[in-house]
C-alpha cells in the first residue's frame, strides 16, 4: 500500500495540472468532477525499493472556489482568471516502512535496520499564488507540516508554458522546492532516537530540489481525455549522500499515463 502511495506522491499536479493551466487560454475547463485510472512507474531512491510500476486512480474536482487535485486541494481566496491566491492543503506521502528497505543495503551504508524507525506520512497546509498569461504560468507556494510529523516547511516556485499541437496540449515545466532542515532531516537523515540507539548521525540540513517535467493531455471524445507525463527531480548532494538512499540515487524519475472522464 505504501508503495502505491509513494508513486502517487511523485506525480502530484501532472495528471491534473491541465485543469488549471488551460484557463490561461481557450478552451477553459468547465467546473466539475473528473475520475480516471493511470499507470505510474517510478524509481525510488531508497535502498532496496527499486523501480515500481503500479495502477492508481486519478480524481479531481474544480468548483468556483473549492478544488481537489489528487493528494492536494484548497480554496481560491482570490481568482481573477489571470491571478489566483489559494489556501492549500496537501498530503505529504514521503513516508516509508524500514521493513520495505534492504537491510543488507542499509548495512553497506553503515546503518543497522533493526535500530531504525519508520517514517510517517504528513499533512501540509499553506498558501499558493499563480500568475497566468501569454508568457505561461508562474506558481509559488509555501507549505508547513501541520501534523508535527517532521515539523518542517517547504517553499516552491514553478514555471509552466502551454503548447498546443492539433488536439494535444503539452505542458513543459521547471521548478525548484526549498525544504527546511526539519523536513529533510526527517525523511533523509537519522533521527535523534535512532542516534541514541547507536546509529550514526546524518542531518543533511535544508536543501533545494530542482525538477523538470512535461505533461500532455488530449481529448478522446466529448468527456474522455488522455493524460500523461514525465518528471525528474534532481537530488542535491546533501540528500543523495543520505545513508538511507542508494549510492547512485542522484534523482527521482517518474512516468505515468492514463485516461480520465469528466462529469
First and last CA, distance: 28 Å
Helical amount:
10-25%
| Average predicted local confidence, pLDDT | 87
Structural class: mainly beta
The value of Rg in angstroms is: 19 Å
Task: Specify the biggest β-sheet.
Answer: 12 strands, antiparallel, barrel
Instruction: Supply the CATH architecture.
Output: Beta Barrel
Q: Give the beta-strand count.
A: 13
**Strands of the largest sheet, in order across it?**
1-2-3-4-5-6-7-8-10-11-12-13
Number of domains: 1
Low-pLDDT regions: 14-29
Specify the overall morphology.
Answer: globular
- CATH class descriptor: Mainly Beta
Assign the CATH topology. Lipocalin
Strand content: over 45%
What is the count of DSSP helices, taking H or I runs of 4+ residues?
A: 6
Write the element-wise H/E pattern from the N-terminal end onward.
Answer: HHEEEEEHEEEEEHHEEHE
Signal peptide: 1-17
Keywords: Cell outer membrane, Membrane, Signal
Family: Belongs to the MipA/OmpV family.
Subcellular location: Cell outer membrane
Describe this structure in words.
By secondary structure, the chain is mostly beta strands. The chain has a single domain (about 1-260), classed as Lipocalin (Beta Barrel), CATH 2.40.128. Helices cover about 15% and strands about 50% of the residues. The chain is built from six helices and 13 strands. It has helices at about 1-10, 15-20, 105-110, 180-190, 190-195, 235-240; strands at about 30-45, 50-60, 65-70, 70-80, 85-90, 120-135, 135-145, 155-160, 165, 170-180, 205-220, 225-235, 250-260. Strands 1-2-3-4-5-6-7-8-10-11-12-13 form a twelve-stranded antiparallel beta barrel. A hairpin with a 3-residue loop joins strand 2 and strand 3 (about 65-70). It starts with a helix and ends with a strand. Mean pLDDT is about 85; it is low at about 15-30.
Amino acid at each position: 500500500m505504501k508503495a502505491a502511495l509513494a508513486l502517487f506522491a511523485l506525480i502530484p499536479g501532472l495528471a491534473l495540472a491541465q485543469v488549471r493551466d488551460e484557463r490561461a487560454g481557450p478552451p477553459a475547463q468547465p467546473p466539475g468532477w473528473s475520475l480516471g485510472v493511470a499507470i505510474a512507474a517510478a524509481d525510488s531512491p531508497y535502498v532496496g525499493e527499486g523501480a515500481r510500476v503500479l495502477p492508481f486512480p486519478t480524481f479531481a474536482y474544480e468548483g468556483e472556489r473549492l478544488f481537489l487535485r489528487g493528494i492536494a486541494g484548497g480554496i481560491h481566496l482570490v481568482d481573477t482568471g489571470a491571478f489566483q491566491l489559494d489556501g492549500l492543503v496537501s498530503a505529504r506521502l514521503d513516508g516509508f516502512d524500514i521493513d520495505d528497505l534492504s537491510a543488507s543495503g542499509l548495512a553497506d551504508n553503515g546503518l543497522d535496520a533493526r535500530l531504525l524507525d519508520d517514517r510517517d506520512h504528513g499533512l501540509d497546509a499553506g498558501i499558493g499564488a499563480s500568475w497566468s498569461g501569454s508568457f505561461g504560468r508562474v506558481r509559488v507556494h509555501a507549505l508547513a507540516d501541520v501534523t508535527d510529523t517532521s515539523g518542517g516547511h517547504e517553499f516552491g516556485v514553478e514555471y509552466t508554458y502551454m503548447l498546443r499541437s492539433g488536439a494535444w496540449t503539452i505542458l513543459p515545466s521547471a521548478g525548484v522546492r526549498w525544504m527546511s532542515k526539519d523536513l529533510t532531516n526527517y525523511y533523509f537523515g537519522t533521527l535523534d532516537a535512532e542516534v541514541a540507539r547507536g546509529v550514526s548521525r546524518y542531518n543533511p540540513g535544508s536543501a533545494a530540489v530542482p525538477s523538470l517535467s512535461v505533461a500532455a493531455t488530449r481529448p478522446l471524445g466529448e468527456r474522455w481525455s488522455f493524460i500523461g507525463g514525465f518528471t525528474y527531480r534532481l537530488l542535491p548532494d546533501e540528500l543523495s549522500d543520505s545513508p538511507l538512499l542508494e549510492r547512485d540515487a542522484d534523482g527521482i524519475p517518474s512516468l505515468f499515463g492514463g485516461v480520465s472522464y469528466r462529469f
